[in-house]
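Training component of the fellowship. As part of building independent skills, the fellow (R.M.) carried out the full modelling exercise for a liganded target. The chosen ligand was nicotinamide-adenine-dinucleotide. The inputs are recorded below so that the supervisory panel can assess the work.
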Amino acid sequence: MKKISRRTFNTTLTLGLGMMVNAPKACAVQKRADKKLGIALVGLGSYSTYQLAPALQETTHCRLAGIVTGTPEKEQKWAEKYNLPKESIYNYDNFDTIAKNDDIDIVYVVLPNSMHADFCIRAAKAGKHVICEKPMAVSVAECDAIIAACKKAGVKLSVGYRLHSEPYTKELMRIVKEKTYGEVRYVAADAAYNSRGNPNQWRLDKALSGGGALMNMGVYSIQSAIYGTGMNPTSVTAQEFSTRPEYFKDTDETITAQFEFPNGAVGNIFTSHNANINRHFSTFDKGWVELNPANNYGPLSGRTSDGKVLEFPHQSQQGLQMDDFSKHIMQGTPNVAPGEMGKRDMIIVEAIYQSIKEDGKKIPLDLGMMGIV
Ligand code: NAD
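Fellow's submitted model of the complex:
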């Protein structure tokens, strides 16, 4: 008889239990003609309306199966447009009954940032896999609570970091990983847009957003600095700038921050709600890579120091992202944007705010490989 080591036994046991936890969901999918996972979008604002729902019409491994909205007028409109059954339409109050709906496997939370934790935890308790939009939450403690709830319920968790499924970004990650141009020395990551709209929007209200530019676009800069070096930073120093305090009454307008990395590389990030920029630059001992634009909905554009122009066919980033997560659930492929990645980024966000509060003091970070896939 083949001997089984304690480690193999534990792994087998864990896999076995994991499969048991997910068994009803797997059966429900197998019974469906299209074998696609059903996704319910929570919050039908601009991102759900113009990006996620259209992307779900083209996905291979998942489809739009339900909606959760606080606006009754949207119910019928969406039901007609996307042919959604009445039983798969929820509001924020009856949302928890989604537990009984076998047609929905994944709940995708697309609400203002301070509402993410509550709805992700409720989704996990309902036994649904969870995608949480970025930023994952408004504090590290909330990220921990979401991760714990998903773990307890035996469901998978991912953050809506679409660029981890995007081909230009994946090529940058490959170059960094394979050290195509040698050791990385410096990364610059800028993500900003000029906000001139409604001064009462939730993004400018700290109670709903958790913060300003840093919580919104800054998360892209943090992400980009990390996948552009392949390492987590070991320290951060940060500065805040304000030129329109009458508009940005409650949230940060512009933030810059500097990172140190374990190999001595340095990073500089810029994020703002008062400038338009969307750029990544990594330089190595023997060359450099630039993406510009680097984090919009695409197509992105990229070039390298040896004259290569990166070129990939354009596909919806959101579609690729949701298909990647569905494959992770159904086929066990890697989770390219797990909850730990969202939590790590929130640790860095909190360290940046702390540095600003302490007049640019260097804040050490002890992240190890946390969130690096
Ligand atoms: P939005 O303002 O367009 O939509 C927000 C939705 O939340 C609306 O349907 C609104 O009715 C609902 N809502 C419920 N309670 C609310 C409240 N108290 N105040 C305001 N709205 C409330 O926002 P959005 O652009 O769709 O962003 C939603 C989430 O998606 C945010 O977390 C944002 O960071 C994220 N997002 C991610 C990307 C990305 O590229 N990954 C892009 C855009 C937005």
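The panel noted the following from the submitted structure. The first strand starts at residue 37 and ends at 42. The chain has ten helices and 15 strands.
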